[in-house]
Design goal:
heterodimer; A: Rna Polymerase Sigma Factor, Chain: A; globular; B: 80 residues; mainly alpha; 69% helix
Chain lengths: 191, 80
């Protein structure tokens, strides 16, 4: 029997149950608890109001996260002025990776992705923690690229930054992510 | 008259391969977010011939790409 027709209350409960995931994603992208709270509240409201349009063709979470992406973008636009700065960012990350002559300080390690489900879900948590650890504006730009799936031209337009700035920030973010994954996942456990 | 030494294949290789690992891995990273020019692509290929570290770095970048795609699906389609 069609779940939506059968138990609207159950659907509403399921929508509400996505709140922690939505909050985590909104925070990861917006880097501001108040903005994230607003985006999540508006998402849940829109989902409840539009629940009749959710026809069970897609998974509930996919549908709700799709709404969230729009609401998060609204927040980015609303606070555009506060987001429109390029990080002058330290060059520490590059200095920690390359010697002055431009060689790698350490041979890059051989990485492989876990193929077992349990390990994979642990890896996803580490990856997310590493994205969360990116400094504010780097994280915002990186998530726009990797979660909202914007190309760099769109990011430049939304944040009013030059493409050189955005490319540089994305590269720095990727270097930091790499370091974090090396430390917290790929390094052999000592214990 | 001898040919211009710079057009000898081995010298062309030399010209491109003097770029450091820092430069080459920067290009490998840039490729995630923009299209590279032809000389940039050539510089990577030439450098890879004689470097062990940069191909490893490239493999890490590919792994991160795969992981990020996996993560997006995981978060957007439910997964705890």
């Amino acid at each position: 029997m069609n779940q939506a027709m059968h138990a609207p209350n159950e659907l509403l409960r399921q929508i509400e149950a996505t709140r922690p995931t939505l909050m985590r994603l909104a925070l990861l992208q917006l880097r501001n608890p108040t903005w994230a709270e607003d985006a999540v509240s508006e998402t849940l409201l829109a989902a409840v109001e539009g629940v009749s349009r959710f026809a069970n063709q897609s998974k509930l979470q996919t549908w709700v996260v799709g709404i969230l992406k729009n609401k998060v973008l609204d927040q980015l636009r609303l606070h555009q002025r506060e987001c429109a700065y390029a990080t002058s960012d330290d060059e520490n990350i590059e200095q920690s990776i390359y010697a002055p002559d431009g060689h790698f300080r350490e041979m890059p390690a051989d990485w492989g992705l876990p193929d077992q489900a349990v390990q994979q879900s642990q890896f996803m948590k580490v990856l997310e923690a590493c994205m969360d650890a990116l400094p504010g504006q780097l994280g915002r730009v990186f998530l726009m690229r990797e979660w909202l799936e914007f190309d760099t031209a769109e990011i430049c337009q939304e944040l009013g930054l030059s493409s050189t700035n955005v490319w540089q920030m994305l590269s720095r973010a990727r270097l930091r992510l790499r370091q974090c994954l090396q430390t917290h996942w790929f390094s052999p456990r000592t214990s | 008259m001898p040919a211009d030494p710079l057009v000898q294949p081995e010298n062309i290789m030399k010209r491109f391969s003097v770029r450091s690992c820092r430069d080459i891995s920067a290009l490998v990273l840039a490729r995630e977010d923009r299209d590279l020019s032809w000389p940039e692509r050539l510089a990577i290929r030439a450098h890879f011939v004689m470097c062990k570290a940069c191909p490893r770095f490239e493999q890490q970048v590919r792994t991160m790409r795969g992981a990020l795609d996996l993560w997006r699906g995981y978060r957007d389609d439910g997964g705890d």
